Amino acid sequence: MLATACTSNKEWQNIEFYNVEKMEQLTEKPLHVEEDSAGLGQLHNDDESREMDVKVDMQFMKSENVANEKVCNLINGHLIELLLKQSSELSIDDAIAQYIEDVKTEFHGDEVANVYHDHLTGRAEYGMENVINYRLLEDIFTGGAHPCKLTTILRFNTQTGEFITLDDVFPTLNQTRLQDILLAKLMKDQNVQSLDELHQKGILEMTDMFISSNFALREDSIEFHYNEYDIAPYASGACTICVSYEDVKDIISTTWENRK
User: Fold this and answer.
1) What is the pTM of this model?
2) Which fold, 16-27+50-164?
């Protein structure tokens, strides 16, 4: 379930979130060629129709303050580029419309899947001081045994509009220690004492522990999200590891250590 924005009286939480939603459905019957009695090819519709639906339901930023509006525009541009894969020079409506057109093009070029859907749900939330976390849940089905559900988490500085990277929060030299902290927390959450016990649960069988790029700087902790297949099989679902700021106080960048 996606987290939603919460209210607060903190003065720095002065950016508003608003929803933009657009959906399009398409049903088509592919054509095939059959020879008539004269040996000439005739086009006919297939009996089985193909269906596609794409839905974008995303929050974007706005503010009545001129300076904050510039920050909002920068964040919205990042969302357009990083999540919709469109040019930040496009308006929000045009970027969403182009995203839908791209999905339709992919659908028309796919001759396998008869049912095709792509749903994007994006929500913003305030986190630690001067940070907005953004979660995008993408629910995709293009054929196969089951849909694919992917969560992407981004972070933005509410003072500058800049995208916050892992290296901004944890210096590169400290990231090995962070990885160890995450592994220890995962083992604690799973109530195991060793890697072998994790493997018996199907966790980290195909990969070593790594730091997920999908993380949120929450008010009380840092949340690292691992999608299906990242560290465990599909049947195990997605995994979230939360570490407190106290747990990482010795390795977090000084820029962030006092923002809670």
Assistant:
1) 0.85
2) Heat Shock Protein 90 (3.30.565)
